[in-house]
Amino acid sequence: MFIKCVRKAIKRHGERIKNISWDYAHKIGDLIAELALKYQSVIVLEDLNELRENNKKNKKFNKKLGLWFYRRIQFCIEYEARERDLEVVKINPRGASSKCPRCSGKLFEYRRRVLRCRKRGFICDKDVAATLNLYRKYISKHPRFGVSGVAPNAPKPDENPSGMQENRDEAMKTNQII
Fold first, then answer.
1. What per-residue confidence (pLDDT) applies to 145?
2. CA distances (Å), 47 to each of 94, 110, 117, 152, in order?
3. 110 in helix, strand or coil?
4. Rounded to an integer, what distance in angstroms lies between the CA atom of residue 148 and that of residue 95?
5. How many Å is the Cα radius of gyration of the chain?
6. In the Cβ-directed half-sphere of 107, how many Cα atoms lie within 13 Å?
7. Does the pLDDT value for residue 154 go beyond 60?
8. Tell me: the pLDDT tens digits for 155-168?
9. pLDDT digits over 47-64, tens only?
10. Dihedral of the alpha carbons of 9, 14, 17, 22, in degrees to the nearest 10
């Protein structure tokens, strides 16, 4: 039923949605390329070609529906980066959002979309963990950047870049730590 409704909506609003999504994708690509140029950075993206969807419906349709905007954004980022002679690297995202960026241990669900490392007590958003791990994978393959895998403007060890970490003492008082 859901797929039929989506197909009808695509037929009804397809061209308009396509134009809006291209506009947003170009704006995002331009913004990222400008930031990379300003900070003389390399753009690191997930390699979406390795991504597999685990859906029980029509897999081909679900995959297209699930990935179309991400691929479009990546295309625009790569296009804008080429215009500015910037390097774009694609990294395999396997395990990026399930490993702790600090110790590479397994992250466990703490709250909705928030994960926690039981070993280190590190708490962050799932997307932040994936971003940090992709950066870590890139640094391990390109050691000339940063020192020991740490960017010059990286947050201090006691800072959390996602702004998600709670005061540990308060969490322990309310028995929220698993």
1. 53
2. 9, 27, 25, 26
3. strand
4. 21
5. 19
6. 27
7. no
8. 555 555 544 444 44
9. 877 554 444 456 666 655
10. 150
In this structure, the strands spanning 88-91 and 43-46 are parallel
Token duo for residue 16: 């308009």
Q: Is residue 29 within 8 Å of 76, Cβ to Cβ?
A: yes
Token digits of residue 29:
């690509």
* Token pair 């390699």 in the structure block, residue: 47
- What counts of helices (H) and strands (E) characterise the chain? 4, 5
Q: Give the distance from CA 77 to its chain's centroid.
A: 14
173 to 96, 99, 168, 170: CA distances (angstroms): 31, 27, 9, 5
Residue whose pair of structure tokens reads 């698993």 in the numeric block: 178
- Which pLDDT belongs to residue 1? 64
